[in-house]
Specification:
This protein has 394 residues and is α+β, with helices and mostly antiparallel strands. It contains 13 helices and 16 strands.
Length: 394
């Protein structure tokens, strides 16, 4: 194993420089304020969790977990998501608080990457969890909140695809007869490789009717009409009930007046295995992957001995910033350059400016390498140098 170069970072790790940090902070504050307005309460969980609890419940591939050992020999993980840690908190620290719980977070998550170009192993995610409400209203609420948050962040054009992960599984198994055969086609849907899906279906030993039903599944995308198409294709009570779930959620979304942002997609498959029902993904123009996603997970809380239905979403802040095309945001800032004999006067002047709400830097003249280069950074520069009482600004 070779020693890393002095300026090298671990794979997938990034620096955030001051200008981008300020831009992210501005967007983050707008998002948090909107989430507060919907009655969700923010919390924090540890960066490190036990592998046997949160790690194994997270639905993240084992090879993507950052693992380490504590002094007692327990295997720990850097948290790969926030849904599992919040489920742990709901079942422990909040066990005496009656459902439903509306919780929110803004946290850094960690998922190890192979040597894939540009994919982050650490990223910031903002999201909510509505725990203890199994209704279509809860599903629609978190979707409508996600739409509102994206709007408040400044995103103008985006789409939210809504599907049902249970429908995909049940429909495929209903036709193919086994979970193993269905999983192959689910993988094509997850990758959105519809050409591969069609080709694989045509190679299967199926009746013409079953082949037609499978290929017709790819057409279950679009507006409200896709729900009616799914009603016609569904044959079992199970799949019909799942289509009705999507219809109920759509009706509530109509009441929220957000269906102009919605697309029905009965082919939607999530990489998170704990999802059990309604799932959704948010897409922005010119971004080739989801910037937000979420769904219903009604079985995860069983693992923490406090069963409850739940739903929620997470927004990737790095992808949101990319879709907003915001790369830098620097606050207006002033600089006071002083000589040693004018130090007290400069400190008092800086205090007055800061109390007035002005971002102010104090800089001793003797510590400057290049005055012209330094002053270019600031919107205004005040000089307290030489004779007392002489203040020059530019």
């Amino acid at each position: 194993m070779t020693k890393p170069f002095m300026f090298e970072k671990p794979i997938g790790m990034r620096d955030t420089l001051p200008s981008l940090y300020e831009a992210k902070k501005h967007v983050r504050e707008r998002i948090q304020e909107e989430i507060y307005h919907w009655g969700y309460q923010f919390l924090e969980t540890p960066t490190l969790e036990f592998y046997d609890t949160v790690g194994s419940a997270s639905a993240t591939l084992d090879q993507q977990l950052f693992k380490l050992l504590d002094q007692q020999g327990n295997t720990l993980v850097l948290r790969p998501d926030m849904t599992s840690p919040i489920a742990r908190v709901a079942a422990s620290r909040l066990k005496d608080v009656t459902y439903p719980l509306r919780l929110a977070y803004d946290s850094h998550l960690f998922r190890a990457q192979q040597r894939e170009g540009g994919r982050p192993a650490e990223f910031e995610q903002v999201g909510v969890e509505c725990i203890g409400d199994a209704s279509a209203s809860a599903d629609a609420e978190v979707i409508a909140l996600m739409v509102s948050v994206l709007q408040k962040a400044g995103l103008q054009t985006f789409r939210v695809a809504v599907g049902h992960v249970g429908f995909v599984t049940a429909y495929l198994q209903e036709i193919l007869g086994s979970k193993e055969r269905a999983s192959v086609l689910q993988r094509y849907l997850y990758e959105k490789n519809y050409v591969g899906f069609r080709n694989h279906v045509k190679q299967l030993p199926l009746s013409s009717i079953d082949e037609k039903r499978l290929l017709a599944m790819l057409d279950l995308r679009g507006g409200k009409e896709a729900i009616e198409q799914a009603h016609q294709l569904a044959q079992s009570k199970e799949t019909k009930a799942m289509v009705e779930e999507v219809q109920r959620v759509w009706e509530v979304l109509e009441d929220y007046d957000v269906t102009e942002y919605m697309t029905i997609d009965f082919n939607l498959v999530s990489h998170m295995s704990y999802y059990t029902g309604i799932v959704f993904e948010g897409f922005a123009d010119h971004l080739g992957f989801p910037l937000a996603s979420g769904g219903r997970y009604d079985e995860l809380l069983h693992k923490f001995d406090r069963p409850a239905a739940a739903t929620g979403f997470g927004i990737r802040l790095d992808r949101l910033m990319e879709s907003l095309k915001v790369t830098a945001n620097t606050k207006a800032m002033e600089c006071i350059i002083f000589s040693d004999e004018r130090r007290k006067e400069a400190i008092q002047l800086a205090k007055e400016k800061r109390e007035a709400g002005v971002y102010t830097v104090l800089q001793n003249f003797s510590g400057i390498e290049d005055v012209d280069a330094l002053t270019e950074r600031y919107d205004q520069v005040t000089y307290c140098i030489g004779k007392a009482g002489s203040v020059n600004s530019r």
